[in-house]
Each structure stands twice: as structure tokens, then as C-alpha cells.
């Protein structure tokens, strides 16, 4: 049960990330992602963030579907591995804060899933 709660938390995080990326104000995006507001006023960057937001929302919904439809634990494990890999890259290329906000919860969920096998 703890594993599902942790995985669900990771999914909710991605829904929130996607919402902020697609619909958040420049001020909210700046605070959430650490980009200067001036950069975030770029139409090109806003389009890129919106596109990334779609992927985050999709990942969140996919993981929630795995939980709701009681799919194999392997599906959840693979999803958490994916989040860890993507978050690690983001931590290396954007901000180390991603390691704590995205990778940390996904690693806890992954560890919990593996130990529950």
C-alpha cells in the first residue's frame, strides 16, 4: 500500500508540473523552475514549456491508470525508472533542485515497489 501511495504522489507531481508548464503564469513558472521571468516571457520558451507540460501530464495520467487498472507492478517499476532517468538528466542540465523534487520521491517509490516484490 505504501508503494502505491508513493507512486501516486509521483504521478500527482507530474500532473502539477504539467499544469504549471502549460497554464502557469510567468511568475509561477519562474518560482517553480528557477528561470528568470525575463527569459520566460519568450514565446519560444513558452511553447517549449507547454510541449513539455503535455508529456508530464501524460506521464502522470499513465501512472494513475496503471494504479486504477491494477496493472503489473513491473509497469509501475518501469515508470519510476523512467522518472528517475529523466529527473537525473534534468538535475544535471537545469537545476539540482529536480533531484530532490522529482528524483527523490521516484526513488523512494521505486525502492518500495522492489522491496514489495
UniProtKB/TrEMBL annotation:
Keywords: Membrane, Transmembrane, Transmembrane helix. It comes from the Bacteria. Coiled coil: none annotated. The keyword Ligase does not apply. This is DUF1304 domain-containing protein. The chain crosses the membrane at residues 54-86, 98-116.
